[in-house]
TrEMBL record:
Gene3D superfamilies: 3.30.70.270. InterPro entries: DNA/RNA_pol_sf, Rev_trsase/Diguanyl_cyclase. This is Uncharacterized protein. It comes from Minutocellus polymorphus. It comes from the Eukaryota.
Length: 273
């Protein structure tokens, strides 16, 4: 079946629950980066680029042993293709698919395996991601700098090194200067394409110091480092709080199950501040 994606597009989904394949396969838990991960490579004046991996799941092949269990009967849609010796017409997924429970883990795992190649040898001085050491910037240290994160990669220039952070299919690149960020973007994009991973050029945005949301949070660095939530998440937060206030005023109590369903999102927003 399909799920609407925006106003003019759809996302094809395979019903892995009804077919039974989700019950027969294991989906590992895995962590996702938070905005704290991103802040390790940010200081006043840092530049940002948002890169997108197009058709995330379809970049990676489905295990041969599973393809026989992801068939779709399309006989009713193409009756003109039916032959006397072939009463039914089936197609099967050969790539990771939406609706298959392990797909997020498998796609993220494969993309992380490519990470070392995408960023190159950090010891190569010509590499835009070159860095020389990890700095532990901890309170109590004589050299503690409160304008920088507790741990970061140091470039020989004394600035925080260029870096790359990946949230599923959203890549956030950071650069010491605009020129250095362009070099990082060119390197990552060309190496993604070399691996056959779709770099969605159509989704590129202008490089800036006041970039849009990544992992639900917004970072501005033009005149300091400021951390905000996206407008969409802020509006949703206000809606939830108004809804809870109305429920409490009308009934004098709050539904416990409803609170649990809202808890995760509110904690996520509160962590930003």
């Amino acid at each position: 079946f399909h799920v609407d994606k925006g106003e003019t597009d759809i996302r094809m989904v395979f019903n892995g629950t009804t077919s039974g394949i989700n019950d027969a396969t294991h989906a590992s838990w895995f962590p996702l980066p938070t905005i704290e991960s991103h802040l390790r490579s940010v200081e006043t004046g840092t530049w940002f680029s948002d890169e997108d991996l197009g058709e995330m799941f379809l970049n990676f092949l489905l295990d041969l042993r599973l393809r026989g269990y992801t068939g779709v009967d399309i006989t009713m849609y193409f009756p003109e293709l039916i032959k006397t010796y072939q009463p039914k017409l089936w197609v099967a997924w050969t790539r990771l698919l939406m609706g298959f429970r392990p797909s997020p883990y498998l796609a993220t795992q494969q993309l992380l395996k490519a990470n070392n190649y995408l960023m190159g040898d950090r010891r190569d001085e010509a590499n835009p991601f070159h860095w020389t050491r990890i700095v532990l910037n901890l309170p109590g240290d004589p050299n503690y700098d409160p304008t920088r994160d507790f741990v970061y990669k140091l470039h020989p220039s004394g600035a925080i090194a260029n870096d790359k952070h990946t949230y599923i299919d959203d890549l956030r690149l950071t650069g010491r200067t605009l020129k250095e960020l362009w070099r990082s973007c060119q390197m990552v994009a060309s190496r993604l394409n070399h691996l056959g991973l779709q770099h969605a050029v159509r989704k590129l945005r202008e490089l800036m110091q006041d970039a849009g949301a990544w992992a639900g949070s917004v970072v501005h660095t033009s005149d300091g480092v400021y951390l905000l939530v996206s407008l969409k998440r802020w509006e949703k937060t206000k809606y939830i709080l108004d809804e809870l206030a109305t429920e409490l005023e009308e009934s004098g109590s709050l539904d416990h199950q409803n609170l649990l369903s809202r808890r995760g999102f509110l904690i996520y927003v509160a962590r930003t501040y």
